[in-house]
Amino acid sequence: IHPKKVVRNRGALIGDKLILTKPLGTGIISTALKRGIAESSSVAKAVNSMTQLNKRTAELMSDTDGVHAATDITGFGLLGHAAEMIEGTNLGMIIYASKIPFFPGIQELAEKGIVPGGLQRNKAFRLSMIESSCPTWSLDALFDPQTSGGLLISLPTIEADKLLDRMRIEGIMDAAIVGEIVASKSNIIKVV
Asked: Quick one: which of 144, 73, 150 has its CA closest to 105?
């Protein structure tokens, strides 16, 4: 990669919007599959997502002006990786739980406690940085460790809208603006 095209997981700016490019819940669905209780349609959607590379998404991101930071969403879950983006800065985040794309059936599985052990470890490690007013199942799903998860991209509003439109044209239909960067001396992520 060209040195001027490198995008790090640090560097987000106050006012940036956050785009998430894939649904969440692969860890929960995998756990349900191991227990023999996963819905075949949910498994199919998760497998399809996991087999889609982030290559085209990353290319679109690289061709977009003003991308300040980005990270892939993998084993630490969305909130774990989001915490890395703001830890030790004067930044915080607001995550809009209602805007997060989840795989079908995640709510029911999480409410039944069918979650991977990694989710609980992620939650224990980062919960001190989180203020949440969303349902417990949703907060759990935001800590769910992902296999081949999407990207979380921080960029100005105008550029976020343009990038989202380009993603839709390219068939990246689950991408959504899910939050924003705010000032915070305590590095808090508010999930609302």
From this structure: 144
DSSP string, the chain: --GGG---S----TT-EEEE-S-B-HHHHHHHHHTT---HHHHHHHHHHHHS-SHHHHHHHHTSTT--EEEE--TTHHHHHHHHHHTTTTEEEEE-GGG--B-TTHHHHHHTT---HHHHHHHHHHGGGEEE-S-HHHHHHHHPPPSS--EEEEE-HHHHHHHHHHHHHTT-TT-EEEEEEEE-TT--EEE-
Q: How far apart are CA 16 and CA 41, in angstroms?
A: 35
What is the distance between the alpha carbons of residues 119 and 156, in angstroms, rounded to a whole number? 30
pLDDT tens per residue across all 192 residues of the chain: 677 778 999 999 999 999 999 999 999 999 999 999 999 999 999 999 999 999 999 999 999 989 999 999 999 999 999 999 999 999 999 999 999 999 999 999 999 999 999 999 999 999 999 999 999 999 999 999 999 999 999 999 999 999 999 999 999 999 999 999 999 989 999 999
